[in-house]
């Protein structure tokens, strides 16, 4: 079994591949988001076609960058998610909305990267992360340049009921796309869920770490080859060892064969 494990491991190591880093930018959109309208706007893109070498890459990590502008925008009104197939990641869900505050933060716009592993953590309470309270305004949009990247809001709660404190449904993360194929349509949905302000979807991008689909055949070959080697080792173990030839029983058998041979010769 040890020999089999070594052979299979070696073949698997030879078949492994490093992840490729791919970025797709969707710029110049300038799409106005209707105020106080849950229908919102959806931007659909196909970074790579299904069935192509690029489209068949398997996602190991994905980050999303979104730019939403408008000096009259109200960040606490915005509900944003990205979807690919059946997988969904909620990027924004009424940031700053919490117990005792149904409006959320009033800062105007975003120019941020969403990354599950971002050091800043959950974007929903970004003011508290930056200032230690929810009342200090940014004085402008939240940007990567100013504050770095953030983990998605990830709350699947209804935007009309979501709060900072309710994290029971905070599982709509970007890791939901891990293991999926890159190819096919990706959509970004943006909605302004309350009255006041005007926001525009300027651009967004997808950055993937992705690898070719693992190849199954090296495993089967490794197992078959290992079985062959183990079989040969087993067969050899059945042969007499050199030390056995010097045992008393082996010597008596040798003497008997020599006597029989001498009688035939005589």
Short description:
With 266 residues, the chain is α+β, with helices and mostly antiparallel strands. It has helices at 2-15, 126-131, 144-147, 217-237, 248-265, and strands at residues 20-26, 31-33, 37-48, 58-69, 78-84, 87-93, 110-114, 142-143, 184-192, 199-211. The chain contains five helices and ten strands; from the N terminus they run αβββββββαβαββαα.
Structure in words:
With 266 residues, this protein is of the alpha+beta class. The chain folds into two domains: 18-211, Jelly Rolls (Sandwich); 217-265. 24% of the residues lie in helices and 29% in strands. The protein has five helices and ten strands; from the N terminus they run αβββββββαβαββαα. The protein has helices spanning 2-15, 126-131, 144-147, 217-237, 248-265; strands at residues 20-26, 31-33, 37-48, 58-69, 78-84, 87-93, 110-114, 142-143, 184-192, 199-211. Strands 1, 2, 4, 7, 8 and 10 form a six-stranded mixed beta sheet that branches. A four-stranded antiparallel beta sheet has the order 3-9-5-6, with no helix packed on it. Strand 5 (78-84) and strand 6 form a beta hairpin. Helix 1 runs antiparallel to helix 4. It is elongated, with a radius of gyration of 33 Å.
What structural keywords apply?
single chain; 266 residues; Jelly Rolls; six-stranded mixed sheet; four-stranded antiparallel sheet; 24% helix
């Amino acid at each position: 079994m040890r020999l089999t494990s070594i052979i299979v491991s070696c073949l698997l190591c030879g078949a492994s591949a490093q992840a490729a880093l791919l970025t797709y930018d969707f710029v110049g959109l300038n799409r106005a988001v209707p105020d106080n309208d849950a229908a919102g706007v959806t931007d659909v893109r196909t970074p790579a076609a299904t069935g192509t070498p690029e489209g068949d890459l398997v996602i190991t990590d994905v980050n999303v960058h979104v730019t939403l502008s408008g000096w009259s925008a109200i960040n606490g009104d915005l509900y944003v998610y990205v979807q690919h197939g059946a997988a969904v990641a909620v990027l924004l869900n009424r940031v700053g909305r919490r117990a005792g505050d149904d409006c959320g933060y009033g800062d105007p716009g975003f120019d941020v990267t969403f990354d599950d592993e971002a050091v800043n953590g959950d974007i929903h309470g970004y003011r508290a992360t930056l200032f230690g309270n929810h009342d200090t305004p940014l004085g402008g949009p939240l940007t990567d340049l100013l504050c770095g990247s953030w983990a998605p809001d990830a709350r699947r709660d209804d935007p009309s009921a979501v709060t900072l404190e309710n994290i029971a449904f905070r599982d709509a993360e970007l890791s939901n796309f891990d293991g999926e194929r890159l190819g096919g349509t990706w959509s970004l949905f943006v909605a302004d869920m309350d009255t006041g302000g005007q926001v525009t979807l300027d651009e967004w991008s997808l950055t993937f770490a992705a690898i070719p689909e693992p190849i199954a055949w090296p495993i089967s070959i490794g197992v078959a080859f290992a079985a062959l080697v183990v079989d040969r080792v087993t067969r050899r173990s059945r042969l007499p060892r050199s030390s056995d030839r010097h045992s008393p029983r082996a010597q008596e058998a040798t003497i008997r064969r020599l006597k029989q041979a001498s009688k035939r010769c005589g």
